[in-house]
Amino acid sequence: MARPLGLKCVLCGREFDPRSMVYTCPDCGSDGTLDVLYDLVDARKRINRKTLAADTRPSLWRYGEVLPVEKASSIPDLSVGWTPLYSSPSLSAKYGVGEVFVKDDGRNPTGSLKDRASSVGVAKAADFGQKNISCASTGNAASSLSGFAAVAGLKSIIFVPRSAPVAKVAQLLVYGATVVLVNGDYAKAFDLASMAIEKWGWYNRNCAINPFLVEGKKTCAMEIAEQLQWNVPDIVVVPVGDGCIISGLYKGFFDLMELGITASIPRIVGVQAEGASPLVEAYETGAEKVQFGPAETIADSISVGAPRNWAKALRAVRKSGGEMIRVSDKGILDSIPELARETGVFAEPAGATSFAGFRKMAMQGKTGSRDRIALVVTGNGLKDIPSARKAVGEPIEVEPELRDLEKVLGLNV
Ligand SMILES: Cc1ncc(COP(=O)(O)O)c(C=O)c1O
Ligand SMILES: [Zn+2]
Question: Rounded to the nearest whole angstrom, what is the distance from the C-alpha of residue 400 to the centroid of ligand 2?
Answer without folding.
Answer: 68
